[in-house]
Every structure is written in structure tokens, then in C-alpha cells.
Specification:
Elements (H helix, E strand, L loop, with lengths): L1 H16 L3 H4 L7 E11 L5 E12 L4 E16 L2 E14 L6 E18 L2 E14 L9 E12 L9 E9 L8 E13 L4 E12 L8 E12 L3
């Protein structure tokens, strides 16, 4: 049981270790979030995998509801170095800013292609994703948008160590494939994954997210926990 509690304790320590101490002392508590997810995966064939994810996102380290969603995803391995995938996310988001407040419903459709390469102990992946978001039950000025996302991620395999570091950086572009004016935000993450068996694992990470082009915008510091269960083929 102590082993299972270690990753949970570590994720609450990471945001205090990574940023400078002086910076953390000035951060508004509203700029913290916690993301908690349960993911179930099944691979009916060697190349095809399917997943169902439920996630709850809270503001201020669990004090206030922010968002929840269900997501379905399918991924197919075209080549040992190339993957493609599609998915649908249905989510509920609480809008507590402005004149029109309340719960908002959305659907997000997305597709991606991901290339991967292994260099001795280092695994490198680059993902290009396009997503389209549609607001539901709103006919006047819906908050629809589309984004392109570019994500570079790495995993370093440390000998005789279960918690291999995972590092990623992702850039978001609003409505356009590439334009300096279209950059919307970026996201940095650092974490790891603890495997308890072939079918069960727990991922934990710290994320730093910052909007671009918005005067006075503050960064978000996010703590993420994801429990994954994988059904094994007979």
C-alpha cells in the first residue's frame, strides 16, 4: 500500500519543487487546478486500440467544480513508427465569469497523427492534432472553435527504476494550421507512470499552462492523476 501512495504524494510535491519558491508565494489560488481521470483501454487486435476516459477537473486544488467529460478514442498503428487516431469528447464546463453564467455543454471531435522514435533509452513522440469544438443547445453566438495542436513528448528509461520521467511541451493554435497570430496557448508537463501490473497503472504529472496574446493573463499550475485499466486479450 505504501508503494501505491508514493506517486500520489509525489504529485503534490512537484509543483513546489519545480517553480521557484518566490514565484509560488505570489500565485493566486485560483490559478491552481486538479485533473482526475479514470481510463479504460482495450485492444481487440494487435494494431487497433480503443479507450474510454472519464475526467473531473476542479479549480483551486479541489475546492470548485470546473469541468467534467467522457471521451471515446480509437487508435490504429499504421507502421511501427506511425499512429493515427480519432475521438469524441462530450463535456460539461462551468462558466462563472461574465453576464451569462452557468453550465455549458460541448462536443469535441478530433483526429491526430503521431510519429515515434526510440533512441537507446529515450523515446520521442511528435503528435499533430486537429480538433473542432461545438457548443450544444445554443443557437445565438455559440462558443464554437477549432484548434491545431503540436505536441512533443519524451520518455527516458532509467535502469532499475520504475518511475521513468516523462516530459512534454504542446502548442495550441486557434483556427489556423500555422500563423504567428494564431498561437493561443502552450502547455508544459513533467511526470511519470507507476505500473502495478500489466493491466493497472497510475500516471501523475505537473502541468504549466499559459495563454498567449492576452494581456494580464496568469499561468495555470495543474496537478493531474490518471488511473488506467487495460483489458488483456486472451
Amino acid at each position: 500500500m505504501k508503494i501505491q501512495f508514493f506517486p500520489i504524494c509525489l504529485i503534490f510535491i512537484l509543483p513546489h519543487v519545480l517553480p521557484a519558491q518566490d514565484e509560488l508565494s505570489t500565485i493566486d489560488n485560483n490559478n491552481f487546478e486538479s485533473w482526475n481521470a479514470l481510463e479504460i483501454n482495450y485492444a481487440p487486435t494487435e494494431k487497433l486500440s480503443m479507450g474510454l476516459e472519464a475526467q473531473l477537473r476542479l479549480k483551486s486544488l479541489g475546492d470548485t467544480y470546473n469541468m467534467s467529460f467522457l471521451q471515446l478514442q480509437a487508435q490504429y498503428d499504421l507502421q511501427p513508427f506511425l499512429e493515427i487516431g480519432v475521438g469524441l469528447r462530450n463535456f460539461d464546463k462551468l462558466d462563472d465569469i461574465g453576464n451569462r453564467q452557468g453550465h455549458e455543454k460541448y462536443n469535441r471531435f478530433y483526429g491526430y497523427v503521431q510519429a515515434k522514435k526510440s533512441l537507446e533509452r529515450l523515446d520521442i513522440r511528435f503528435r499533430l492534432q486537429h480538433q473542432v469544438r461545438n457548443q450544444l443547445n445554443i443557437s445565438e453566438n455559440p462558443k464554437d472553435n477549432s484548434r491545431w495542436r503540436y505536441k512533443l513528448s519524451t520518455i527516458y528509461n532509467i535502469p532499475n527504476w520504475d518511475l521513468d520521467p516523462r516530459l512534454s511541451v504542446e502548442f495550441f493554435m486557434l483556427d489556423e494550421f500555422y500563423s504567428k497570430e494564431a498561437y493561443d496557448k502552450y502547455r508544459f508537463s513533467l511526470g511519470s507512470k507507476k505500473r502495478f501490473s500489466k493491466s493497472r497503472s497510475l500516471s501523475f504529472k505537473y502541468l504549466f499552462e499559459k495563454n498567449i496574446g492576452i494581456n494580464g493573463s496568469k499561468p495555470y499550475h495543474i496537478l493531474s492523476l490518471r488511473y488506467e485499466y487495460r483489458f488483456m486479450r486472451n
